[in-house]
């Protein structure tokens, strides 16, 4: 019984540490929200050489974890759509804040 109480207290302490305002903790929480619920974002795709805007996407979307330099996959949670960019592109993602 005492082990269960200690384990419960440790879990509560870890949860408090994770939910506080440190940068790595807030980054982890943002990744968690993005992975499970998605975030409303504006994603801009630019040519890496000319900096020209090629496309802009807005909505509940995220950039794949397996994206590499130049090869990017953008997933849209609401429509189950994905967009693949292959080549030398720069992707800029900004979270849309609710007002």
Number of strands: 5
Poorly predicted regions: none
User: How far apart are the termini?
Assistant: 47 Å
Tell me the helix content: 25-40%
Strand content: 35-45%
Largest sheet, strands/sense/barrel: 5 strands, antiparallel
Mean pLDDT across all amino acids: 76
By helix and strand content, what is the structural category? Answer: alpha+beta
The total count of helices amounts to 2
Tell me, what's the shape? elongated
Strand order of the largest sheet: 4-3-2-1-5
| Element-by-element helix/strand order | HHEEEEE
How large is the radius of gyration?
Answer: 18 Å
Tell me what you see in this structure:
This protein is α+β, with helices and mostly antiparallel strands and 99 residues long. It is 31% helix and 39% strand. The protein has helices at 2-18, 23-36, and strands at residues 39-47, 53-63, 71-76, 81-86, 89-95. Strands 4-3-2-1-5 form a 5-stranded antiparallel beta sheet, with helices on one face. A hairpin with a 7-residue loop joins strand 2 (53-63) and strand 3 (71-76). The termini are far apart.
């Amino acid at each position: 019984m005492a082990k269960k109480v200690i384990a419960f207290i440790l879990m509560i302490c870890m949860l408090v540490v994770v939910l506080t305002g440190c940068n790595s903790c807030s980054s982890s929480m943002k990744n968690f929200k993005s992975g499970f619920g998605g975030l409303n974002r504006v994603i801009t795709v630019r040519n890496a050489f000319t900096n020209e805007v090629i496309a802009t996407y807005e909505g509940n979307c995220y950039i794949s974890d397996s994206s590499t330099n130049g090869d990017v996959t953008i997933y849209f949670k609401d429509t189950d759509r994905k967009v693949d960019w292959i080549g030398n592109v720069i992707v800029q993602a900004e979270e849309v804040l609710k007002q």
